[in-house]
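User: Here's a chain of 222 residues. Predict its fold as tokens.
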Amino acid sequence: MNAIRSVLGVLGFVAQLAALWGAGEGLGIRFALAQGIFTCVDVHGHRLTSDRPIPECSDREQRELNASGTLKRQVGPTLTAKEQAVQDEKAQTARIESNRLNEERRRDRVLLSRYPNPAAHDRVRAASLVQIDGVMASAQKQVAELGQQRKSLDVEMEFYKVDPTKAPVPLKRQLEENTANVAMQKRFVADQEVEKNRVNARFDAEFAKLKALWPASASAAR
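Assistant: Prediction complete.
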């Protein structure tokens, strides 16, 4: 019975609009029909119908109907400022999570494009480590050469063992520079060790991710 009353109410409203149309208010009625027909049941149980959102039903759901009486959309209750803030926060959180997932999927695609199989990943890892090892070997060679230089300088200093303050200024400067250069090269070697560990950790993390991506990619390719 309620459904029948609802339909009759809507039809009655449409009939009123049609009558107004015939009375010369065509432009306004066309606009109303284009906007839709709103209907709801207020707090007293009365079925209300209007050509715009109904203030008496701002606390409850309203139905917007097409001119034919079919459902166009459902309009939720008007939210309080606090409720709207909560709703906005939820929507913002959902957007952030959606963006995060999209970015993660994008990174996964880039990773798979770069390393389509385990062999490709191993090859790039090995090449990266070889490059670091080459830099470390060069620095270690410098340390060895500086060690030989230090031995020669120490031989010269033997003449001033009794009173080192009498050593020539150039010799003292060479000793200081040798000490500083050895320390610098050793720090450089230590930095490369850290870099090597960092590179290995990155490739380990990528490999763990790729282990889950490779099977899915292979299945999609078949």
